[in-house]
């Protein structure tokens, strides 16, 4: 049975589309749910994202939260679609999660990105982060942008370094080690 909302997409005015040579960055769509859920149950995808799978309900709430950021703040996460296949393959964006974390990220733009493991090593994360930073920089002139990355996620740490993020602290979040990074303007 088709979901009653399956024909709906994020309103174009809510999430501005971005494009890179290989990717479309667009608002989350109901049609992303099956692929996002499948990714969220792949150990090579979630190992650095809390190291536990997420069921469809949890993924759905995550997608709603991504759109909620756009509605509340005028920024949020884009779904990443690979142009060559038209498939959902991750997300990139900026957040205000009100994390209970020290040092605090409150009052900063928190960047984040995820990408399907099948596409690692193609430069897609770099393209997505570059497009997102180019969009946010003139619109939200924050003093700094932050992100948190699992210390074992060498590839993501390398992407962060490409864009001027540097380690601010090593701490724990949800009982897991984490690196807090920042990028000054």
Describe the SSE topology.
Blueprint: E1 18-19, E2 23-26, H1 33-39, H2 43-46, H3 56-73, E3 77-82, E4 88-95, E5 109-115, H4 124-139, E6 144-149, H5 154-162, E7 166-173, E8 176-184
Parallel strand pairs: 5-6
Antiparallel strand pairs: 1-2, 2-3, 3-4, 4-5, 6-8, 7-8
Helix pairs in contact: 1-3
Structure in a nutshell:
This is N-acetyltransferase. The protein has 185 residues and is α+β, with helices and mostly antiparallel strands. It has helices spanning 33-39, 43-46, 56-73, 124-139, 154-162; strands spanning 18-19, 23-26, 77-82, 88-95, 109-115, 144-149, 166-173, 176-184.
Report on this structure:
Helix 1 crosses helix 3. The chain is of the alpha+beta class. Strands 1-2-3-4-5-6-8-7 form an 8-stranded mixed sheet, sandwiched between helices. The chain has 5 helices and 8 strands. The longest helix is centred in the middle third of the chain and has 18 residues. A hairpin with a 5-residue loop joins strand 3 and strand 4. 29% of the residues lie in helices and 27% in strands. It has a domain of 128 residues: 3-Layer(aba) Sandwich (Aminopeptidase). It comes from Hymenobacter metallilatus. This is N-acetyltransferase. GO terms for molecular function: acyltransferase activity, transferring groups other than amino-acyl groups. Keywords: Transferase.
Order of helices and strands: EEHHHEEEHEHEE
Beta-strand content: 25-35%
Unreliable runs: none
* Assembly annotation: single chain
What is the mean predicted local confidence, pLDDT? 91
CATH architecture of the domain at 18-145: 3-Layer(aba) Sandwich
- CATH class placement of the domain at 18-145: Alpha Beta
């Amino acid at each position: 049975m088709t979901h009653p909302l399956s024909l709906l997409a994020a309103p174009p005015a809510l999430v501005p589309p971005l494009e890179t040579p290989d990717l479309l960055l667009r608002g989350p769509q109901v049609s992303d749910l099956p692929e996002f859920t499948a990714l969220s149950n792949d150990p090579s995808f979630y190992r650095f994202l809390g190291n536990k799978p997420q069921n469809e309900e949890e993924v759905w709430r995550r997608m709603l939260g991504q759109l909620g950021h756009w509605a509340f703040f005028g920024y949020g996460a884009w779904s990443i679609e690979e142009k060559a296949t038209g498939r959902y393959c991750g997300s990139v964006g900026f957040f205000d999660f009100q994390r209970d974390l020290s040092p605090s990220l409150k009052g900063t733009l928190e960047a984040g990105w995820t990408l399907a493991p099948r596409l690692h090593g193609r430069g897609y994360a770099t393209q997505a982060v570059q497009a997102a930073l180019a969009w946010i920089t003139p619109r939200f002139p924050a003093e700094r942008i932050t992100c948190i990355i699992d210390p074992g996620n060498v590839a993501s740490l390398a992407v962060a370094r490409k864009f001027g993020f540097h380690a601010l602290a090593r701490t724990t979040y949800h009982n897991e080690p984490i690196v807090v990074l920042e990028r000054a303007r």
